[in-house]
Specification:
heterodimer, A: alpha/beta, Elongation Factor Tu (Ef-tu), domain 3, 4 domains, six-stranded antiparallel β-sheet, 31% strand, globular, B: mainly alpha, 59% helix
């Protein structure tokens, strides 16, 4: 790709701003005028339910806004002087214009950052962004028959897909099964029902409220969508739901029709912990078996590479030069001299990481 | 004479040294746990001030042919460079702000406005100097390989030129810093690895090229017919920064009372003894808040050496606790006004350009003969609580 005119101007200008970049000065005028680190400004925080809100963000320079529906974005927020990073699925559709994008966040119990995003974020706040990524996306054109199965805030990437169908007027034959803890806690309920009405016959929406109907399991799913075998399925929700989906589709020999998105690493498996050394940065920490190496490194002030923070994108991969680590998702152990995903692994004994 | 055993020099028992070490650890923990939004706001404010000073200075110099503009522009640029090199660059590269998780204010990514590449600075300074502080033969900052700063260093006829080397180093300080990690001493002894040297020289050349082009070519050219006056303004700003940082840095370890150590001290040195060596080997100077910021908080050299990676804006409160500990353990805490500290450095440099030992060297002050008894230590009330304001 040939450099754009902007790149050229920036390169020339950096000759006079060296060792800084022109961006370092421009952002004094407008905090979004920098491509050095991707940033965005919170334009609006829209409450969705008691404990969920949609955050509308206007990205700054350098942000590639051409995300695909279903992808997630990394967002960094400043809390007490320290930047904390999380990943959230984008709930807006790229077809609604590239001026802004939205994420929809549910405040988790004891969720230090999610709670702040839902309840404490003022419009005008500057946040950091990472480029959208993720493989939980639809092919274009979409398959003729689709099943969406979403649980709780797992609705967000699917909402982006539904909105995109609506914008492009390409709604295929969709069955959307959504479960929420209660009617009041169902995110995007009105919009979903409105779309169902608009695309009557093409979009069928089935709701399950745990307090009214009990937990929705795969048996109930089959009842709700008897032709599930004929559909490409996109499933996003809590870890137990994803596990049951994986088993169910695999048992039917249809694993290839299933697309799942894990929006949180299941941190229940516990390694034993140990003394971890970040070799090049000279930092050392004692860890329990539940803290990920990525979090530990960041807490110790090591500049850890990171991406999705849920074990998908492999941006955070670093060489493990000594010791053993355990994958928190499945308990798999990784030996020394392997590259490990620091965002989903914890120390299983003393280890040394090359950063 | 250089010290071979810090504990016996300080008249402390091994238990007392360990106890002192734990007290220093406690200070570190307290500061680490209380780092927060105010500290982050401090460094961001410093960075914003630096950038405004630089923009203001550069813009003013577009009228550099007009003498008042030359003076104002040069002053702003010099102040900006001093702030960036000392309070911002030096401290950021120490990792004092890494806890913020901000990739733009991180020791791993910071590059500063001098000819010295950040990567080489972090090796020669953060690693070599801060680990082996004042150990003769290990710490290249003891005389920088060209000056005799203690009578423990053998006299050589070349030391006769010391007054001249000193003046040149002060004027060209940034260039001395740029070449420092090459390790002049190792090159002289022909111990330097040629491959490593080539790699370092390449790094220096890359950085020098950009710095020189900016200050001595591009900015002067941008001001058109005022090329020469802008060039002299930029050069003057660099020299002002050189003289100031030279003076501040020489006040850190060369005044009377900042002790030197032998390699024997390093053998089996504990963390607590390392603290003690940092304390005995460093010298502070007094000054206003403005003065401390302008000198990159190096007036708190003792605190900086005890805790090189704690945020510099916290050094004043750390200093109160360190002073209290020095009183409790009857340890010296070297401090004086900057003119006196530099006066001592200058006198030492002049005297040591001539052969001779003690005649030229001030006696290191001994810790007070009377030490606190164990009972007194137990009854020590601890550092003073912050005074409630009268309002």
């Amino acid at each position: 790709m040939s450099p754009t005119a902007t790149d050229l101007v920036r390169r020339v200008a950096s000759r006079v701003t060296t060792p800084l970049l022109p961006d370092d000065y421009l952002k004094l005028i407008n905090p979004l005028w920098t491509a050095r680190e991707l940033r965005g400004k919170v334009v609006e925080v829209i409450p969705e339910t008691d404990d969920a809100a949609t955050i509308v963000i206007k990205p700054g320079w350098g942000f590639r806004a051409s995300y695909r529906p279903g992808q997630y974005v990394g967002i960094g927020v400043d809390r007490d002087g320290k930047w904390h990073w999380r990943s959230y699925s984008i709930s807006s559709t790229p077809d609604a214009g590239h001026e802004t994008l939205s994420i929809t966040v549910k405040a988790m119990p004891e969720g230090f950052i999610s709670d702040h995003l839902v309840r404490g974020l003022e419009p005008g706040t500057i946040v950091r962004l990472a480029l959208p990524q993720g493989e939980f996306v639809l092919p274009d054109p979409p398959p003729p028959k689709v099943l969406f199965w979403t649980g709780g805030s797992g609705i967000t990437p699917v909402m982006s897909m539904l909105r995109t169908f609506d914008r492009r007027n390409t709604m295929p034959d969709v069955v959307h099964v959504h479960s929420a803890p209660s009617r009041e806690q169902a995110i995007f309920r009105e919009e979903r029902l409105a779309l169902t009405e608009k695309y009557d016959g093409r979009l069928r929406s089935i709701e399950n409220f745990d307090d009214e109907h009990g937990i929705l399991d795969v048996t109930k799913l089959e009842d709700a969508c008897p032709d599930w075998r004929d559909r490409q399925a996109w499933v996003c929700g809590p870890a137990p739901m994803l596990e049951s989906a994986e088993k169910h589709w695999a048992a039917a020999g249809l694993a290839r029709s299933l697309h799942i998105e894990r929006f949180s690493a299941n941190l229940t498996a516990s390694a034993t912990g140990g003394h971890v050394t970040f070799a090049k940065s000279g930092k050392e920490v004692d860890l329990d078996g539940a803290t990920t190496l990525l979090e530990a490194g960041e807490a110790a002030g090591v500049q850890m590479p990171f991406g999705c923070r849920m074990g998908i994108c492999h941006t955070c991969v670093l060489p493990l030069t000594k010791g053993i680590v355990k994958d928190l998702r499945n308990g798999a152990e990784h030996q020394e001299n392997q590259n490990i995903q620091t965002c989903v692994t914890a120390a299983a004994g003393d280890c040394v990481i090359e950063i | 004479m250089a010290i071979s055993d810090v504990a016996s020099f300080a008249h402390l028992t091994p238990d007392q040294v360990d106890e002192l070490g734990r007290e220093f650890d406690q200070i570190r923990r307290d500061i680490e746990e209380s780092r927060g939004a105010d500290d982050a706001a401090y460094i961001r404010r410093m960075i914003a001030i630096h950038r405004k000073l630089v923009v203001g200075g550069r813009v003013t110099l577009f009228a550099s042919a007009f003498p008042p503009a030359w003076v104002v522009g040069t002053a702003m640029l010099a102040a900006g460079k001093i702030l960036e090199n000392m309070e911002i660059g030096h401290n950021v590269m120490h990792g004092q702000w890494d806890w913020m998780n901000d990739p733009e204010i991180h020791s791993g990514t910071w590059e500063w406005d001098t000819t010295c590449p950040a990567e080489q600075w972090k090796h020669s300074h953060n690693y070599v100097h801060h680990t082996y502080t004042n150990v003769i033969g290990k710490d290249n900052d003891v005389g920088y390989g060209i000056l005799r700063v203690t009578s423990d260093q053998k006299w050589h006829p070349a030391n006769l030129g010391q007054p001249v080397y000193n003046a040149l180093l002060a004027l060209l300080f940034e260039w001395g810093v740029a070449l420092h990690d090459l390790d002049i001493e190792a090159i002289r002894k022909r111990e330097k690895d040629p491959v490593e040297m080539k790699r370092q020289l390449k790094g220096i050349w890359r950085k020098v090229r950009k710095q020189v082009a900016k200050d001595y070519l591009i900015f002067p050219a941008l001001t058109g017919p005022q090329f020469v006056s802008t060039l002299t303004a930029n050069a003057t700003a660099n020299v002002i920064r050189n003289l100031w940082s030279y003076a501040i840095i020489f006040c850190g370890h060369f005044p009377d009372g900042a002790e030197k150590f032998t390699e024997e001290e390093l053998r089996n040195e504990t963390q607590a003894e390392w603290y003690l060596r940092q304390l005995l080997g460093s010298a502070n100077f007094t000054g206003s808040r403005f003065m401390h910021v302008a000198s990159g908080s190096l007036g708190y050299q003792i605190e900086h050496h005890l805790f090189p990676d704690l945020p510099s804006n916290r050094y004043p409160e750390i200093a109160e606790r360190v002073k209290a500990l020095c009183e409790k353990y009857a340890l010296p805490y070297t401090i004086g006004p900057m003119y006196r500290q530099y006066g001592q450095v200058f006198r030492t440099l002049m005297k040591l350009s001539l052969p001779g030992k003690r005649a030229a060297e001030p006696q290191p002050p001994q810790p007070r003969a009377k030490r606190a008894t164990p009972a007194e230590l137990r009854s020590y009330p601890g550092p003073k609580a912050p005074q409630a304001s009268a309002a």
